[in-house]
Q: What sequence folds into this?
């Protein structure tokens, strides 16, 4: 009986020590530097947003958060790197609408967005502006639709690349309006903007932050905003849906994910810190000035959002007759 009693005591003590250790380990995350992978170039939308957030995150987490740009292969290089990283919470991925498009556009991706990642939170939404070169004789979306129908394939629009955030609203417009704006892809948003400024193309579905300076200089004309609601900085500008395409809505979005099987406690710590930083008045102002709407939802809400985005884009590409192709390698 004494032996059994002694064993029971030792087991109870061991169990208690295990629970204490687990609690301490959960409380000490993070205990080293975190790396936030941005799968696009410095200065891109996602890069700018996370660099606004990382000082506050480093402060709250009491560990440095380092931004690491790994651009290439339509953002797939950075995504693959994080998918194969240790699932310990110390490697994060800045995700955007481009990766949900990739899930439908490419048949041999080296990762699966739903299987290989765990969502942390959605960071922000960013609407686009439909801008045209001043030489194009349209001032409303209705006029653009009528002109495009009378000249199928004669009006073109630029984008920063096939499947990207400036490509998707253009294809959504083509599909819903029943028109054929000709897509002209460029190697990045900068060249795509230059193309419409020079008149090489007539239309661009431009990120708000890049378009605003050229609107003030009257080098471009904005005819609509792609979001469901009007943009606060341009309240007189109607949405695409208001101009006749009921149900049209597009906003680029940004969020954070970690490798699948990352401990839920670590994800919770990171999510709480991100939401706290997003709620800071100075951060909200900087994001609003960039044309972004802060979000900061739960991992479950973000997971549902991503699934819905993938399904919606699958329908869009099906209607547009876009078939999956081999994934780019550089």
A:
């Amino acid at each position: 009986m004494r032996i059994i009693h002694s064993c029971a005591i030792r087991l109870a003590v061991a169990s208690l020590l295990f629970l204490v250790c687990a609690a301490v380990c959960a409380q000490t995350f993070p205990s080293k530097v975190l790396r936030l992978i941005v799968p696009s170039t410095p200065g891109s939308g996602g890069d700018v947003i996370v660099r606004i957030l990382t000082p506050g995150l480093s402060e709250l987490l009491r560990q440095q958060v380092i931004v690491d740009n790994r651009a290439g292969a339509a953002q797939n290089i950075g995504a693959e790197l994080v998918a194969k990283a240790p699932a310990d919470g110390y490697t994060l991925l800045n995700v955007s609408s481009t990766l949900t498009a990739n899930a439908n556009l490419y048949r041999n991706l080296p990762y699966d967005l739903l299987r290989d990642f765990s969502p942390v939170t959605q960071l922000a939404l960013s609407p686009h502006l439909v801008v045209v070169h001043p030489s194009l004789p349209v001032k409303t979306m209705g006029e653009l639709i009528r002109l495009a129908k009378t000249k199928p394939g004669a009006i073109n629009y630029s984008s920063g690349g096939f499947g990207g955030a400036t490509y998707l609203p253009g294809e959504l417009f083509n599909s819903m309006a029943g028109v054929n704006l000709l897509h002209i892809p460029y190697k990045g948003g900068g060249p795509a903007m230059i193309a419409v400024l020079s008149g090489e193309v007539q239309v661009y579905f431009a990120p708000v932050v890049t378009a605003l300076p050229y609107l003030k200089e009257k080098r471009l004309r904005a005819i609509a905003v792609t979001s469901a609601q009007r943009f606060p900085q341009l309240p007189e500008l109607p949405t695409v849906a208001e101009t006749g395409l009921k149900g049209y809505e597009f906003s680029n979005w940004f969020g954070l994910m970690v490798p699948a099987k990352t401990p839920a406690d670590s994800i919770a710590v990171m999510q709480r810190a991100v939401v706290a930083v997003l709620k800071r008045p100075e951060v909200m102002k900087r994001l609003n000035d960039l044309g972004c709407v802060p979000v900061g939802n739960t991992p479950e809400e973000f997971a549902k959002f991503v699934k819905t985005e993938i399904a919606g884009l699958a329908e869009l590409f099906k209607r547009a007759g876009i078939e999956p192709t081999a994934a780019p390698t550089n």
